[in-house]
Amino acid sequence: MIREMTRADFEAFWPTFSAVIKAQETYAYRSDMTLDEAYQIWCELPAKTYVWQEGDQILGSYYLKANAMGPGDHICNCGYMVSEQARGQGLATKLCQHSQDIARELGFQAMQFNAVVSSNEVAVKLWQKLGFSILGTVPNAYRHGRLGLVDCHIMYKSLA
After folding, report:
1. Which of 154, 152, 156 has its CA nearest to residue 26?
2. pLDDT tens-digit map of 76-94
3. Which of 20, 57, 68, 81 has a CB 3.0–4.6 Å from the CB of 72, allowing a cystine?
């Protein structure tokens, strides 16, 4: 069910990706981003990008990349998206667990999320359940599409 993402997979996932960025509730991406721009950010720049596929539907995806260059490249960063129809079914948990396994295989020693929107309580609780800690909170770091300015958490987990 989880495998590396292809261009065709991303194109099939584009309606979900586009809806997420247009909502301006979880990702700090421009709401008018094109498919090609999104593909570059989600699939070409990261070290790996995976999909969760059931039948002919792409229900979720994540990317994995180094969080920094040079002496900071032993810590990775990931981003996850799940289609609206598949939310609440454990996909984000499985994607995050898979990403941690892949990160270890690639030699990463820790995982860091740079900007978890504080109002995304489901994600914050899930990441904490999976062993991530909130290292700090940046006040008013995100312009939420409905709520205005909200805080962002920096979250971290050792993979050692």
Report:
1. 152
2. 999 999 999 998 889 999 9
3. 68
